[in-house]
Design goal:
5 helices, 124 residues, globular, five-stranded parallel sheet, 36% helix, Rossmann fold, two-stranded antiparallel ribbon, alpha/beta
Length: 124
């Protein structure tokens, strides 16, 4: 199953990570870290997330992640997916509310692999 295949990969980037414990970008970032994943926060609005350096975009990460977890609105998602495709990042985890038909069509067009599920539920 696609979900399990992605969850076996150990280097993730959380696009939309933040410092608000009530927001999913924060909950997901902390959950992945607590489960032993190497996780990079990506959000141009933050210098740090949970005390870790936060990166402005995927291109500025110190290594290529195996999976990108999208925690941003589908309205802001396409440029991130374009960047992911150009960097050769294949695996996209789409949180509920982060995708629409345009995003799904773009993912298919670029040949990316996508899971549509909540990683918080998948990592119980």
């Amino acid at each position: 199953m696609l979900e399990e295949m992605m969850l076996e990969k150990k280097v993730w980037a959380v696009v939309g990570a933040n410092n608000d414990p009530k927001k999913y970008g924060n909950m997901i970032y902390k959950k992945l870290k607590s489960k032993g994943y190497k996780v990079y926060p990506v959000n141009p609005g933050y210098e740090a997330v949970e005390g870790d350096p936060c990166y402005k975009n995927l291109s500025s990460l110190p290594e290529k992640p195996d999976v990108i977890d999208m925690v941003i609105s589908h309205k802001r998602g396409k440029p991130v997916l374009e960047e992911a495709a150009s960097l050769g990042i294949q695996n996209i985890w789409l949180q509920p509310g982060t995708y629409n038909d345009e995003i799904m069509d773009f993912i298919a067009e670029k040949g990316l692999t996508a899971v549509q599920a909540c990683v918080l539920v998948a990592l119980v």
